């Protein structure tokens, strides 16, 4: 029940675009990958999914790049999880037991159930816009590994 790098890269990429795009220019994949210190080709595939799901828009060409869509800031984090990781991780046993459920629990079942339910609740109520902190001058640093 852990989130993948794909989810992290998607969220960080979308937040980066959301922070810079209001300045009036489209954000190129090279800039996003460089500033967030993530592999460009892997990020490009993830950002393409964000466009296919209408979370971002993209334009090709020398003046192209990524920009926000009308629904970007209202998009819940759970939607990003579904796109990047799917929901299966929330339905499988943390110990990978096939028959783990409330009637036949593994040793961690009930503890992980609480964590899972908490994560699902948080991701269901939190939007991309909720995470933006435009007043923080170090916001880019907080989503970058540099």
What labels would you give this structure?
2 strands; Arc Repressor Mutant, subunit A; 146 residues; 7 helices; mainly alpha; 49% helix
Could you characterize the architecture of this molecule?
With 146 residues, the protein is mostly helical. It has a single domain, classed as Orthogonal Bundle (Arc Repressor Mutant, subunit A). Helix content is 49%, strand content 5%. It has helices at residues 5-20, 29-36, 40-52, 77-84, 109-125, 128-131, 139-143, and strands spanning 56-59, 65-68. 18% of the residues are buried.
Known CATH architecture: Orthogonal Bundle
The fraction of residues in strands falls at: 5-15%
What's the total helix number? 7
Can you identify the CATH class?
Mainly Alpha
How would you summarize the topology of this molecule?
Blueprint: H1 5-20, H2 29-36, H3 40-52, E1 56-59, E2 65-68, H4 77-84, H5 109-125, H6 128-131, H7 139-143
Antiparallel strand pairs: 1-2
Helix pairs in contact: 1-3, 1-4, 2-3, 4-5
Summarize the entry for a quick read.
By secondary structure, the chain is mainly alpha-helical.
């Amino acid at each position: 029940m852990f989130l993948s790098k794909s989810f992290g890269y998607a969220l960080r990429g979308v937040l980066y675009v959301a922070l810079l795009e209001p300045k009036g220019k489209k954000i190129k994949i090279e800039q996003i990958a460089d500033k967030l210190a993530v592999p460009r080709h892997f990020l490009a595939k993830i950002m393409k999914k964000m466009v296919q799901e209408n979370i971002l828009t993209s334009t090709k060409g020398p003046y192209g790049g990524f920009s926000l869509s009308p629904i970007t800031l209202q998009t819940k984090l759970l939607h990003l999880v579904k796109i990047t990781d799917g929901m299966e991780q929330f339905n499988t046993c943390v110990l990978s037991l096939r028959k783990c459920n409330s009637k036949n629990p593994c040793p961690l079942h009930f503890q992980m159930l609480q964590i899972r339910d908490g994560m699902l609740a948080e991701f269901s109520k939190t939007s991309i816009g909720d995470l933006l902190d435009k007043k923080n001058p170090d916001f880019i640093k907080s989503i970058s590994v540099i």
